[in-house]
Amino acid sequence: MDKKRKLLTIGQFAALHGINKKTLMWYDEIGLFHPSFIHPENGYRYYSYYQSAVLETILLLRELDVPIDEIQTFMKNRSAAGMKQLLQEKIEDLDRNLAHLKAVRKTLSYHCQNMQTLLAMDLSEIRIVQKKERSLVTVDVSRDDTFDKQVEMITAETQKYQLRRLHDASYGTMIAVDRLKRGNFEDYSKLFIEIPFPIKKDGLHIQPAGDYVRAFYRDAAESSAPCYQKIFDYVEERGLALSGFAYEVIINENVIDRAEDALVQIEIPVKSK
Question: pTM of the full predicted structure?
Answer without folding.
Answer: 0.59
